[in-house]
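Hi R.,

Quick one: here's the CLRN1 protein sequence you asked about.
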Amino acid sequence: MPAQQKKMLFCTAGVLSLACALGTAAAVGSQLWVRGTTLCTTGALLVNASGPELHKFIGHIQYGLFSGQRVRQCGLGGRPLQFSFFPDLLRIIPASIHVSVILFCTVLIVFALVGAGFFMFNAFGSPYETLHGPIGLYLWSFISCSCGCLIMILFSSEVKIHHLSEKIANFKEGTFTFKTHSEQFANSFWTILVCSLVHFLNALLIRFAGFEFPFSKSKDSGTTTGAVDLMY
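And here's the predicted structure, written out as tokens:
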């Protein structure tokens, strides 16, 4: 492939990596990871609510990695409440999983920035054999994509398996009991998915630029060396 086209591919991959780093940073500080509704079962059972009356007992909840807000509905109008995970909710949430999600988000941002820098260096500089060359570019893209996948897996398990929304809704609720009525992942969660796909796309761009995978190169060189040894 001509050098000019390679520069364009590397510039594109670098810009995409930079955009992923900024998008992930914005997602970490956002409250739009999960949106849902909660049903006040205690209040609904007291008045035997059904049909349209049930809407008076359905509140709203949304949260991110650090904070969120919910509207508490128990038949007498909504009451908005703000909450934060640190330190308020650490006793009721799976703290190890939650901290791991934040840690992998940080790693994703760092390696996305590193990958963007190395892509730009390969576009306008003289690439080295290890960290700046194809091996390094594959490495940064693989680490970033893996971190994005781990973030989605861990956060999904925290929300679905450990019933995070219900634990938040019932925090410091002595009389009323809330259950999750509906729940869906919001924009910030899907931003992580898009970033993971972009890093996978960057690896394809490296291959499209004409760089063989590192193990393919070593295999070919080993075969050639063996043939030469047989000749002599």
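The first helix runs from residue 3 to 28.

Cheers,
M.
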